[in-house]
Amino acid sequence: xxxxxxxxxxxxxxxxxxxxxxxxxxxxxxxxxxxxxxxxxxxxxxxxxxxxxxxxxxxxxxxxxxxxxxxxxxxxxxxxxxxxxxxxxxxxxxxxxxxxxxxxxxxxxxxxxxxxxxxxxxxxxxxxxxxxxxxxxxxxxxxxxxxxxxxxxxxxxxxxxxxxxxxxxxxxxxxxxxxxxxxxxxxxxxxxxxxxxxxxxxxxxxxxxxxxxxxxxxxxxxxxxxxxxxxxxxxxxxxxxxxxxxxxxxxxxxxxxxxxxxxxxxxxxxxxxxx
Length: 275
Fold this sequence. Notes:
The chain has 275 residues and is of the alpha/beta class. The chain has helices spanning 15-24, 37-47, 61-64, 86-91, 104-120, 122-130, 159-172, 186-191, 200-206, 226-231, 249-257, and strands at 6-9, 26-28, 50-54, 73-77, 95-97, 151-155, 175-179, 194-196, 209-212, 237-240, 263-266. Strands 8-7-6-9-10-11 form a 6-stranded parallel sheet, sandwiched between helices.
């Protein structure tokens, strides 16, 4: 009887998934759910036929230089794969897979959640109540910002941005503008109530909320920097459900501290709260 292929699973996955993995493969599960780190990843590459990794596993050229290399596949749990050095993986004969399109609606929901949290001060209010500081309602206490009728600027207009535009325009009556070097067709944009802009700067200057939806590439690293934060309205909010590399974090902290922008909501994957 042929032995089942072996696979190392780098983090805990939903129970039903782990059950299927155990049924179909010789699966080594991460019961502690702690990151393996470079040494653990190299052990996995040496000892298993495949590694089921996640977006927080940094699979660099150095990690992939391991000898002897047994693994022949990196199966990524996620859409983005910029944490994997795909060139190094290819040179070592490793196939790399991902899970395209599965997170479109979920990420759009998170983007709208963050937008509502920062505008209506939801997280701040929840912490206020839990700390025991709530002293009753008064008209001027923790005033937030309206969302309906405001302008949402989308940086990038791919699948997730279009899902956000649909929620924002049809659900909240927001005006939607966007910039993307590869825009959707005019009829599709019109169906979302979205108006194109020729430059990123135009989007920043016109928007009450700026939501980032571009990939992390060398060209987009620190796309949102000090100069671009200065282009935003002082009352505007930044929402980022894309990769953290797109934002210059030091410049963001500075912009928040000096009031250049009103606030920011960052996906938990970026390890930052809505602020």
